[in-house]
């Protein structure tokens, strides 16, 4: 006879697992991406914010084209362009407070730059010089993350720890649609919802995970719908509408800061350039598709709104473009300077306290470099 079979044994009633813990209806995203530009809602947008977004978009586009050119000149090893996605990049950086944290992916160098990171430092990883070229604590920007979606659990951990300490901090984690197919994405969302961590997840759905279209990754109605499975709100927004992205992300940040927990935002956008300079995008998409998205360019949409409302004239457009050119020229000049690299820096910042094995490797490299220098000196 088992304990449960004994007379008078405690028999707890199982919980009604089939019932939802919360009403799913408020968590579901809208049927169509939320828009501001070209709608009556645009009249309520702050004109100064719209002008700031525009200036940053123009500068961001020029940053992308300049960085792409640097790969062709051998000054960058690789560059994942965010051309066409600048509205997501700019809005993500601008909605955060000074104490908040940004967790970017490898495609999000523009967001890091708008957040305040030096543009050359932001490109250092892609140059192959350092694992990250900047101090993450200075501007509260985590290192650019090349493994897909591994930055998401990091964002949740930081946000959860900040809440436990009583710090007023929100983490905004950026990821592409391809990253949503990784286990890290699901683990991060589950932990964030269970802990009610102050995190905002921004999925930039740009249509392709390298060459794999979204339809071959998921059968969900939208990526934003995945939020309800974890118990958090899902928002669907037009990722080329800078005002809409800023508004939706701003709402999500305030929701998280107020103790409401995480939000999953899917921004529907398009990657105009190839995955990286090493990718041949003509293998999996045609020019007609790209041109159709160019008509929905984030700069074009915002410029049309601003000029139509008399908030931007030709002089303002020229000023924004000139600022972008000056920015690109300064970046180009600095990137054309050969960096002074020390191979021994390979061992810097790996651990707070270097391990014995790392110390052995460091001394081995030091000996090899010294021997090489002596041999070079003897040949002279």
TrEMBL record:
List required co-factors: thiamine diphosphate
**Domain Dehydrogenase E1 component residue range list:** 66-324
Biased composition, Basic and acidic residues: where in the chain? 360-369
Pfam families attached to this UniProt entry:
E1_dh
Q: Which domain of life is it from?
A: Bacteria
Q: Which UniProt keywords apply?
A: Oxidoreductase, Pyruvate, Thiamine pyrophosphate
Region of interest (Disordered), ranges: 1-31, 357-380
Compositionally biased region (Acidic residues): 370-380
- Protein name as it appears in the record: Pyruvate dehydrogenase (Acetyl-transferring) E1 component subunit alpha
State the organism of origin. Streptomyces glaucus
Q: Which gene encodes it?
A: pdhA_2
């Amino acid at each position: 006879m088992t304990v449960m079979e004994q007379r008078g044994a405690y028999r707890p009633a199982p919980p009604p697992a089939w019932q939802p813990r919360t009403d799913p209806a408020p968590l579901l995203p809208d049927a169509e991406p939320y828009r501001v530009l070209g709608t009556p809602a645009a009249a309520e947008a702050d004109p100064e914010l719209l002008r700031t977004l525009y200036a940053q978009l123009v500068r961001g586009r020029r940053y992308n084209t300049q960085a792409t050119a640097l790969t062709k000149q051998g000054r960058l090893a690789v560059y994942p362009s965010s051309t066409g996605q600048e509205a997501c990049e700019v809005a993500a950086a601008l909605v955060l407070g000074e104490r908040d944290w940004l967790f970017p992916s490898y495609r999000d160098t523009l967001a890091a730059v708008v957040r305040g990171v030096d543009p050359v430092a932001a490109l250092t990883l892609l140059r192959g010089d350092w694992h990250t070229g900047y101090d993450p604590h200075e501007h509260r920007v985590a290192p650019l993350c090349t493994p897909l979606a591994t930055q998401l659990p990091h964002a949740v951990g930081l946000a959860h720890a900040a809440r436990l300490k009583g710090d007023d901090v929100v983490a905004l984690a950026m990821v592409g649609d391809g990253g949503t197919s990784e286990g890290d994405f699901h683990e991060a969302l589950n932990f964030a919802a269970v802990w009610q961590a102050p995190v905002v997840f921004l999925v930039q759905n740009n249509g392709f995970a390298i060459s794999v279209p979204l339809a071959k990754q998921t059968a969900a109605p939208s990526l934003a719908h995945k939020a309800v499975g974890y118990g958090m709100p899902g928002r669907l927004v037009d990722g080329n509408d800078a005002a809409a992205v800023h508004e939706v992300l701003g709402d999500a940040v305030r929701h998280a800061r107020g103790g409401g927990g995480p939000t999953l935002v899917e921004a529907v956008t398009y990657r105009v350039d190839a995955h990286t300079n090493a990718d041949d995008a003509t293998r999996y998409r045609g020019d007609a598709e790209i041109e159709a998205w160019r008509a929905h360019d984030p700069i074009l949409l915002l410029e049309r709104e601003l000029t139509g409302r008399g908030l931007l004239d030709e002089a303002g457009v020229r000023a924004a473009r000139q600022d972008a050119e000056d920015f690109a020229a300064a970046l180009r000049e600095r990137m054309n300077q050969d960096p002074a690299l020390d191979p021994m820096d390979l061992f810097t910042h790996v651990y707070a306290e270097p391990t014995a094995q790392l110390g052995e490797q460091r001394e081995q490299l030091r000996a090899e470099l010294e021997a090489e220098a002596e041999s070079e000196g003897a040949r002279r």
